[in-house]
Structures are given as structure tokens and as C-alpha cells.
């Protein structure tokens, strides 16, 4: 039996690929190694055909409901809301979890930012759309409430230049951000600007390389994610909540 296995290419060391000219992207990392071990232990009864899935990360789990994928991996947090499509229909299911990790802020060594409480409107934080890292950042900074609704007055810049302003959470046009399916009107968000002086501006990126470059160049002062970097003039701080 052959299984079509889609693997995310930009989550080192969990699931990634090193670009090679004129060659298929070879899966690397913890999850691809697990899949290779399952194939080896099957004694020839099971094989996996690997299919590379690049950026953006948001929504890659729903590819399981699309041809030709039978399964998808890439450090995807198993959340009930991620099992449903945009119409709220259950279309996928998760297997047994096998990784646990904590979220952190990645900042320059020596930065005055040590906790989320230190972030103000003078700071810029980079993250990815529809991820657990984004959701946790926005919760800890009170940009969204516990249900995911944006704080009233928050400005949302979209990729096409459209600027939206969030309405109160109890209004019909309230905007919601989730680690699964949020408000369709803001799926292409590239910047959030909250109304409070005690909240940072949030910028969105498509890849680790893009975000890390922004951090090193000073476009953002911190990077919110579930990973850490080594060998760089950076430090990680675990969140406090």
C-alpha cells in the first residue's frame, strides 16, 4: 500500500527540506524520520510517496481533504477547530500527538524585552498567520479576547492595501483570529495595529528566513514562535502564562 505523504518544508528540525536544484525536495527532520521508520518496520507492506508543501503554513492540515494527499505532517498542533473547513464541516482528523513544545519570544541578546508585558506600541513582533504562536501572542497582549475576537479599534492591513478597523466583539461584523479558521475577511492580513499604547504592532511573514532577516535587520524587535535559534546573537524567553 502506498500512502501520499505531504510534508511541510520550513519547520527545522521537525519537518523541513533543503532546496536542491533540479531534484525533488527531500524530506528531513523528526517527523519524516518517524515516517521512514514506519515504512521500514512494515516489511514492505507500506510505502510513502513524499509531497513537499511549502509556505505559507496556515491551512496545510486541510490538504488531507484534498487530492492527492492521504496524510500531512509538519509540526501541526492538533486542535478541534483545525478539523473543520471554512464552512465548519468536519473534514479531517488528527492522529496521536508525539511532540510537545513551548512558545517563546525570540529577541536580540541584551534586549530589554524579557516578557510579553514589556511589549508596547513602540515594538514590532513578527509571527505567522493562523498558528498557535500567533494566537498565544495576541492573547497574552490582549489584542484578542479568549474567543479570538480582535480588540475594538485594532487596525488590520491586508495584502492588497485594504485597511480594516475591528468592531466590538459583540457586533455582527467583529473580526476573529484563530489557529484554525478565523474571519475570512482578514485571511490575508499583513499587519495588526492595536489601539493601546501597551500593545505591540504585529507583522506577518511567510517563512523562517524572511522573519529571521527582519529580526536581524531591526524591522521587528521580537519573533513569536514555538522554536529557538542557536549560533546567532539572539536569545529566547519563555512566555509567562
Features:
three-stranded parallel sheet, globular, single chain, 2 domains, D-Maltodextrin-Binding Protein, domain 2, alpha/beta, 241 residues, eight-stranded mixed sheet
Q: How is this structure best summarized?
A:
This protein has 241 residues and is an alpha/beta fold. It has 2 domains: 2-83, 3-Layer(aba) Sandwich (D-Maltodextrin-Binding Protein, domain 2); 104-238, no CATH class.
Could you characterize what this model shows?
With 241 residues, the chain is α/β, with parallel strands linked by helices. The protein has two domains: 2-83, D-Maltodextrin-Binding Protein, domain 2, CATH 3.40.190.10; 104-238, no CATH class. Helices cover 13% and strands 24% of the residues. The strands form three sheets. It has an eight-stranded mixed sheet with strand order 10-9-11-12-8-13-7-14. It has a three-stranded parallel sheet with strand order 5-1-6, covered by helices on one side. It has a three-stranded antiparallel sheet with strand order 2-3-4, covered by helices on one side. Strand 2 and strand 3 (15-17) form a beta hairpin.
Rg result: 19 Å
Q: What is the overall shape?
A: globular
Order of helices and strands: EEEEHEEEEHEEEEHEE
Strands of the widest sheet, in order across it, are 10-9-11-12-8-13-7-14
Main sheet attributes: strand count, strand direction, barrel closure = 8 strands, mixed
Report the helical percentage.
10-25%
The total beta strand count reads: 14
Our count of helices gives: 3
Number of domains: 2
Oligomerization status of the protein chains: single chain
Amino acid at each position: 500500500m502506498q500512502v501520499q505523504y505531504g510534508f511541510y518544508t520550513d519547520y527545522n528540525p521537525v519537518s523541513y527540506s533543503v532546496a536542491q536544484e533540479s531534484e525533488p525536495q527531500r524530506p528531513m527532520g523528526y517527523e519524516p524520520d518517524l515516517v521512514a521508520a514506519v515504512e521500514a518496520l512494515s516489511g514492505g507492506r507500506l510505502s510513502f510517496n513524499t509531497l513537499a508543501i511549502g509556505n505559507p503554513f496556515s491551512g496545510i492540515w486541510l490538504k488531507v481533504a484534498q487530492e492527492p494527499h492521504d496524510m500531512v505532517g509538519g509540526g501541526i498542533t492538533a486542535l478541534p477547530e483545525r478539523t473543520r473547513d471554512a464552512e465548519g464541516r468536519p473534514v479531517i482528523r488528527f492522529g496521536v500527538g508525539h511532540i510537545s513544545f513551548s512558545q517563546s519570544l525570540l529577541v536580540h541578546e541584551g534586549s530589554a524585552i524579557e516578557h510579553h508585558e514589556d511589549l508596547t506600541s513602540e515594538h514590532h513582533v513578527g509571527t505567522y498567520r493562523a498558528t498557535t504562536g500567533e494566537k498565544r501572542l495576541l492573547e497574552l497582549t490582549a489584542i484578542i479576547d479568549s474567543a479570538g475576537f480582535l480588540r475594538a479599534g485594532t487596525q488590520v492591513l491586508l495584502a492588497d492595501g485594504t485597511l480594516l478597523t475591528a468592531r466590538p466583539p459583540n457586533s455582527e461584523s467583529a473580526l476573529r483570529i484563530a489557529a484554525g479558521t478565523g474571519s475570512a475577511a482578514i485571511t490575508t492580513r499583513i499587519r495588526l495595529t492595536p489601539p493601546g499604547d501597551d500593545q505591540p504592532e504585529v507583522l506577518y511573514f511567510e517563512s523562517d528566513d524572511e522573519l529571521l532577516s527582519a529580526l536581524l535587520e531591526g524591522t521587528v524587535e521580537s519573533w513569536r514562535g514555538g522554536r529557538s535559534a542557536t549560533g546567532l546573537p539572539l536569545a529566547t524567553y519563555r512566555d509567562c502564562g
